[in-house]
Design goal:
Distance between the termini: 9 Å
Radius of gyration: 22 Å
Strand content: 15-25%
Structural class: alpha+beta
Largest sheet: 4 strands, antiparallel
Number of strands: 6
Order of helices and strands: EHEEEHHEHE
Length: 142
């Protein structure tokens, strides 16, 4: 089991954090940044999906989009939201306990970034201090 130090960045700019880690003699390769662009929800319009009522009908070519099968929602064919499982897996790789993952998802949805550093037992305290000094919020080690 590793020791992962996590924190929330308001801006996603980790250059000062990287400089502080480097100045402390710590390697930069164990750092990870998950930004709000790695959103937890994506939108998939059903317009591009196969619609049985679109030009197929019952084999007579009389299907009319929005009138025959494939009933649209009030906003056209609607938008379906789905959970980005890759993001959940990525947060899980940071060893964040399942009961706390939603807090990190909420931070990402609010436009913040999650920063993680895979530390060694002897460097955890130093990494936590550097995270705090660099302005990261909610610094935790898992």
């Amino acid at each position: 089991m590793g020791l992962v130090v996590t924190g929330i960045s308001q801006s996603g700019d980790i250059a000062p954090l990287e400089a502080a880690l480097k100045a402390a003699g710590l390697p930069l390769d164990p750092i990870q940044l998950i930004g709000p662009d790695d959103s937890t929800q994506g939108a998939a319009s059903s317009m591009g999906m196969a619609n049985p009522g679109l030009m197929t009908g019952d084999g007579q070519g009389t299907g009319v989009p929005g009138v025959t099968s494939g009933v649209p929602t009030a906003g056209g064919y609607g938008t379906r939201y789905f959970r980005n499982e890759a993001l959940s897996d990525r947060l899980g790789d940071l060893e964040i306990p399942d009961d706390q993952v939603e807090n990190y998802v909420d931070a990402l949805q609010a436009g913040r970034s999650v920063v993680a550093y895979f530390a060694k037992a002897e460097t955890v305290a130093a990494v936590e201090g550097i995270f705090r000094a660099s302005g990261l919020a909610k610094v935790k080690t898992f």
